[in-house]
């Protein structure tokens, strides 16, 4: 978008220089129309201006100002091509861009368009010139510039809406994260007690196993003594015995 704005500023600077020479432009169109014997019909297209300059322009001043007009129109066409690659877009921005491309088409009839306030290019013409000859051609560039500015405004608004939607989705996910935190805490708190219970149960099993082994070992000793025939005599107190 910054590249688009830079290109637009450059075109506006060139147009300001051209606007200061509007009377020179009208004079060049008048001279070339006379040379072409084409005094009846209005100057109604970019291709018509190109034709006058290529075939009926006899002095460098007229050629310079006509070429300046054509160069600005060409720069606007290139800018429109650049706008086509800018995202995001919707039906409004597409309609504005389509209008710009139509106005800048070399064969498009410009005789019915008029630049309105705050532009005063038409006011600098006589009534006859504005109505019948040059009203459309002098209105072309300011109307296209206004359309491009409108396109930029809508595109920036659409970009902000997209960013808000994206940031809104992120905040939703962040809000859902703390809800899961207590569950993780419960799990972390219950995990040691479960481990302790398992460990205690294992210790009890080990004690039972040890006691059972002792009982088995005692029984084994008794059985061994009985089989070997060695039995302990009953205990007698010390002293004489019968």
From TrEMBL:
Coiled-coil residues are none
Q: Where is the composition biased (Polar residues)?
A: 166-176, 187-214
Q: Which domain of life is it from?
A: Eukaryota
Name-wise, this protein is SACA9 protein
Query: Where along the chain is composition biased (Basic residues)?
Result: 229-242
Q: Which InterPro entries match?
A: SPACA9
Annotated region Disordered: the residues are 166-242
Q: Which GO terms describe its cellular component?
A: acrosomal vesicle; ciliary base; sperm flagellum
Q: Which Pfam families match?
A: SPACA9
